[in-house]
């Protein structure tokens, strides 16, 4: 579904000038309902000037009236023939200037924790080029010593849903190729929600690998050797008493 331009400013205008519910506004502008509620509370988009969608030919008044009368009504953008197919335009993802310096860190995170992703998938996620990705994979990047891996979702370079979709696609390709995945790879190739819901598989410490067939619990108990009754230290160390010493001298 197409979204309006200047979505946050449009949401500010709708909150200030209509009685449309937060859910309806959120669905229309592509934001979370709590973000729209934050706009109403003054916690989000402070200082953002409202953008009138009617004056800018994105909505008609009838749509707003219908949404105010019916909380279940979904706002729809005004039809614009010139805008058809715009969402299908292909090209590199635009990355704001303020975040471009974070791209190497996100690339390193992706190639480290999701090596199954192709260079094309990584490039689409963070908006970079294949030579840059290859340089970081091969650790030949000019600044590789100072780059720390950071989740691109945390940096705001991509959405969690986009990352999950990419790893799911990689998982399907790997399964189609018939490759066997270990436990770590299996967790990397699923979404965050699925990975958190998985049961942990027991792992054997490296120090005792190869001894997994032995069991301490079922080992037979060997009977202790009889050492006789030991009553005191003299008998244990075979120390002779004075009476025994005198008897030996008389002999």
UniProtKB/TrEMBL annotation:
Alphabetical list of InterPro entries matching this protein: TrcR
Region annotated Disordered, chain positions: 215-251
Pfam family, one: TrcR
The protein's name in its UniProt record: Cytoplasmic protein
Domain of life: Bacteria
């Amino acid at each position: 579904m197409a979204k309006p331009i200047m979505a946050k400013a449009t949401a500010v205008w709708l909150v200030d000038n209509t009685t449309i519910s937060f859910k309806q506004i959120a669905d229309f502008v592509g934001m979370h309902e709590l973000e729209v509620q934050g706009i109403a509370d003054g916690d989000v988009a402070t200082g953002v000037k409202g953008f009138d969608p009617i004056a800018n030919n994105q909505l008609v008044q009838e749509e707003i009236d219908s949404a105010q009368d019916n909380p279940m009504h979904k706002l729809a953008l005004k039809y614009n023939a010139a805008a058809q197919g715009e969402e299908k335009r292909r090209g590199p993802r635009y990355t704001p200037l303020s975040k471009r310096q974070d791209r190497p860190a996100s690339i390193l995170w992706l190639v480290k924790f999701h090596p199954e992703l192709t260079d094309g998938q990584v490039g689409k996620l963070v908006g970079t080029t294949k030579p840059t990705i290859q340089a970081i994979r091969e650790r030949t990047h000019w600044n590789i010593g100072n780059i720390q891996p950071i989740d691109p979702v945390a940096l705001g370079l991509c959405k969690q849903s986009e990352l999950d979709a990419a790893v799911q696609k990689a998982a399907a390709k790997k399964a189609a190729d018939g490759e066997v995945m270990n436990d770590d790879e299996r967790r990397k190739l699923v979404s965050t929600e699925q990975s958190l819901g998985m049961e942990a598989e027991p792992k054997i410490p490296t120090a005792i690998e190869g001894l997994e067939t032995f069991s301490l619990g079922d080992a037979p108990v060997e009977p202790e050797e009889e050492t006789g009754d030991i009553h005191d230290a003299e008998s244990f160390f075979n120390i002779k008493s004075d009476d025994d010493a005198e008897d030996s001298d008389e002999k």
